[in-house]
Amino acid sequence: MNLPSRLLDNSASYGLISRLFHWTLAALIIWQFIGMGLRAIFGRQPFVSFFVGTHQQVGTVIFMIVVLRVIWMLAMRKRRPSHGTGWLGLAAKAGHGALYLLMLLVPVAALIRAAGSTRGFAPFGFTIFEKHESEVSWMKQIGDCQRRSKNLPKGGAKVDHLWV
């Protein structure tokens, strides 16, 4: 690769591209959790709709960045800093592997759910899935981790989503 060395990973540190992927994903995932957390606590309120209204688009961007990040990680695999040795190094590798798996599986499950729903899926105006007249229940259930609970004793908020 003929990129400036500060952009690339090396054995001592991650390069700017890896850091950009990391912090962009962190910010977008936090945005998603804030939005869905507010919705779980307050329901469909006007002030929550700003966050919820961006959920599909932000989720689509997250998925695209995760795919690019995985490709970048594979391209840099021989250059990346070590996670260390022993149990801590193994735990770091396992933790990172689990995070990568979640960052791929959650959007894939959401896409499968969208494909089986009646609403269609068109992030940024690009139709990925057309609207259907009826749901495909098994597809909707794959991505549906929504569970209803009783009203909380004080405040009356409902918990709408249980997150992994």
Share in β-strands: under 5%
Report the principal-axis shape: elongated
Question: How many strands?
Answer: 0
> What's the overall average pLDDT, rounded?
84
Number of helical elements = 5
Low-confidence stretches: 146-164
Alpha carbon gap, first and last residue: 37 Å
Q: Specify Rg, calculated over alpha carbons.
A: 19 Å
Based on helices, strands and strand pairing, what is the structural class? mainly alpha
Helix content: 55-70%
Give the ordered list of helices and strands: HHHHH
Oligomer: single chain
Q: How does the major sheet shape up?
A: none
Q: How many separate domains?
A: 1
Give the secondary structure arrangement, pairings included.
Elements: H1 16-42, H2 46-52, H3 55-75, H4 86-116, H5 137-143
